[in-house]
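Re: weekly structure request thread

Next one in the queue (266 aa):
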Amino acid sequence: MIIFLYGPDSYRRRKKLNEVVGEYQRKHSNLTLEYFDLEMDDEFNRLQEFALSRSLFKDVKMAVIGGIFEIEFKKEVKQFLKSQLKTDDLTLVISSDQKPVEDSKFLTEKPVLSQKFENLSGERLKFFIRKEAQSRNIDLTPQAVNFLAENFKENTWGLITELEKISSVGKKSLDTAELQKFGDFYESPNIFDFIGLFLRGNFNRKTALRNLELLFLSHEEPAKIFNILASMSRSPELINRLADYDVAIKSGKLGYEEILLDLALG
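Done, posted below.
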């Protein structure tokens, strides 16, 4: 069985991926879960070995796969995926921000379960904002929803960071004027304002969330922010924490956006 999640909205795509994995873990106590990034050397071979391996206890297996279109979509990859379309004991979950290439169009056709995550706009974006705000017990006026929709076009992670910031300081009801004052939307983003909070020992959650939001708004590359922080870190505790995050990134368990948000939340 194959589940294919694709599209540029990485927040909603990642959320759906976590829901799928969580549902399988609840249903199958004997689930064997592995993550594969096909951009990394020998990962495709490891994936094939995982698919072919059999357990005496008939475990249910799930492989979460990233980087499938970042490499040349080779004939052997296509053949492998097609061979797994009707398997019962192995589920492949593919997550990609890219559309299928010509040789992989079958990933959007039955029996594959596929879902597309385009960037939201218009009323769909406003509905999403209201839903995410309500889940954090935040009451937004219609004008405030419109304001957020205008400021966070194609930037769901920035929106979620802003809502997390509001939630973390207990601000539950906002109109547009309060939101403008609270959000500091018009400051110039600076990577070193953000990473300096972790290097100088003067960490402040509200400031970290605000700075990260500004970086997301300016479409600063999350991997770049993480790598600069890692290169400048001197604290053994922070170095170890970033090393654990790096493993989670390379295994596909977390994305850079999630990790930066987790760091900002302290």
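The mean pLDDT is 86. The two ends are 38 Å apart (CA to CA).
Next request, please.
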